[in-house]
Design goal:
The protein has 433 residues and is an alpha/beta fold. The protein folds into 2 domains: 327 residues, ANL, N-terminal domain (Rossmann fold, 3-Layer(aba) Sandwich), CATH 3.40.50.12780; 102 residues, ANL, C-terminal domain (GMP Synthetase, Chain A, domain 3, 2-Layer Sandwich), CATH 3.30.300.30. 31% of the residues lie in helices and 24% in strands. The strands form 4 sheets. Strands 3, 4, 5, 6, 7, 8, 9, 10, 11, 12, 13 and 14 form a 12-stranded mixed beta sheet that branches. A hairpin with a 6-residue loop joins strand 8 and strand 9. It is globular and about 75 Å long. Bound molecules: 5'-O-[hydroxy(phenylacetyl)phosphoryl]adenosine. 5'-O-[hydroxy(phenylacetyl)phosphoryl]adenosine binds next to helix 6, strand 7, strand 8 and strand 12.
């Protein structure tokens, strides 16, 4: 079992919690002194840094939300002067202004450390050749993966996203052993690999670290079987630091939150109440070491559960279950909650279809309707119509029983769903068009 830093990752709980409390107190004091917007929130809630005496007191702190980032755009949440900032990254800002974050030199160092842990968990060593195919730029995926891979001492290929043919050529010619990208792009790369007619035995490719979008357990199997590799999950977001907040170990049974750098809670997204151990709800994250932009109780809108049992890998850090989706991406179809990852999980159990799908949502007579478009394999597509109808019926049946609602299914030609070089677009919402 490989660890990047066994002492930190397997720290006894008691010691870990002591460290968390010490760092929490420091963070709260610093935020209170240097971030007027958050101080105002604390004052409003009648809570003072001195009130944080134990980890359980975390619940007295007010939440931080995306709206706070908007209200304080671009730099209002920074706790250090610009002279101490060495990097700025931001989200794509598809829904309004981008979310901006900053890093001090120490923040960059810690971020690299988090990613070094994740990459090591996924099998990286100094002998690895790691291709980073998350986008480089303001998006955190590329540079986050890059710094982590360099820290491990691997040879890094800063490929960034896109130019798929060249990516496959690099994998083949440069003996790439590990890949970092979105799970959906891992499949796009595989399609290109097949098109190029290369031999699998000519690749040294062994494992991949995938993240930046939800992907089901069945999608993992799909990627692992197609590429013949081990596929691991990495979670993070711009506001929290970027990728590396939680990463999977060899057990592939949940993602270890780097608890020496973050505290995780699960809340009821409607009431904000902290939920008991093992409950499903919204992930809330508090940072413990971030200097430039400390985060106190940030509402991620990502839905999961936390498991605090010690993992069989020996790591003591709590695990989150694979993210089901963002609360923003939850569709409510005739009263039933549906996430794209649930649809994905069901689809990928059915033979003959490709792992390419889209959910089209429409509103008719005040009722939301869901159509699932699924690509079929070349072989099935050239089959007789009757067989296609049978497949369509099977998919409808499986989705109906799996989701508990009637869904319209439409089989579409191979390669007709737009491929993404980054985060896949799973939902086409015609309700707002
Ligand atoms: O996606 C950071 C990242 C880069 C993570 C590379 C992992 C790998 P944002 O663009 O700010 O940051 O998007 C963050 O993406 O709130 C989740 O909804 C989703 N997300 C990220 N990782 C995962 C994952 C990066 N492993 C948002 N599983 C988050 C499910 C994920 N969803």
């Amino acid at each position: 079992m490989l660890y990047w830093d066994q002492k930190k990752e397997c720290m006894p709980r008691e010691q870990l919690e002591e460290l968390q409390l010490k760092r929490l107190k420091e963070t709260v004091s610093r935020v209170y002194s240097f971030v007027p917007a958050y101080k105002a929130k604390m004052d409003e809630n009648g809570v003072n840094p001195k009130d944080i005496k134990s980890l359980a007191d975390l619940k007295f702190l007010p939440f931080l939300t995306k709206q706070d980032f908007r209200d304080n755009y671009p730099f209002g949440l920074l706790a250090v002067p610009m002279r101490d900032i060495v990097r700025i990254q931001s989200s794509s800002g598809t829904t309004g202004k981008p979310t901006v974050t900053g890093y001090t030199r120490n923040d960059i160092e810690n971020w690299a450390e988090l990613m070094a842990r994740g990459l090591t968990n996924a099998g990286a060593t100094s002998d690895s050749v790691i291709q980073i195919a998350w986008g480089y730029g303001l998006f955190t995926g590329g540079l986050g993966g890059h710094y982590g891979a360099e820290k491990v001492g691997a040879a890094v290929l800063p490929a960034s996203g896109g130019n798929t043919k060249r990516q496959v050529m690099l994998m083949h010619d440069y003996g790439v052993t590990m890949l970092g990208c979105t799970p959906s792009y891992a499949l796009v790369l595989h399609e290109e690999f097949l098109r190029m007619g290369l031999e699998r035995s000519d690749l040294r490719f062994k494992s991949g670290l995938f993240g930046a979008e939800p992907w089901s357990e069945n999608m993992r199997k799909e990627i692992e079987n197609k590429w013949e590799i081990d596929a691991y999950d990495v979670y993070g977001m711009t506001e929290l630091v970027g990728p590396g907040v939680a990463t999977e170990c060899g057990c592939k049974n949940g993602l270890h939150i780097a608890e020496d750098h973050f505290i995780a809670e699960i809340i009821d997204p409607d009431t904000g109440e902290v939920l008991p151990e093992g409950s499903f709800g919204e992930l809330v994250i508090t940072s413990l070491t971030k200097e430039a932009l400390p985060i106190l109780r940030y509402r991620t809108r990502d839905l999961t559960t936390i498991n605090r049992e010690i993992c069989s890998c020996g790591r003591t850090h709590a695990r989150i279950r694979k993210i089901l989706g963002r609360s923003d991406d939850m569709l409510i179809i005739r009263g039933v909650n549906v996430f794209p990852s649930m649809v994905e999980s069901i689809l990928l159990q059915i033979p003959g279809i490709e792992p390419q799908y889209q959910l089209i949502v429409e509103r008719k007579n005040n009722l939301d309707r869901l159509e699932v478009q699924v690509e079929v394999s070349e072989k099935i597509f050239s089959d007789e119509v009757k067989k296609l109808e049978e497949l369509e019926n099977t998919i409808s049946r499986e989705l109906n029983s799996g989701l508990g609602i009637a869904v319209k299914v439409r089989l579409v030609e191979p390669q007709s769903i737009t491929r993404s070089e980054g985060k896949a677009k799973r939902i086409i919402d015609k309700r707002t068009i």
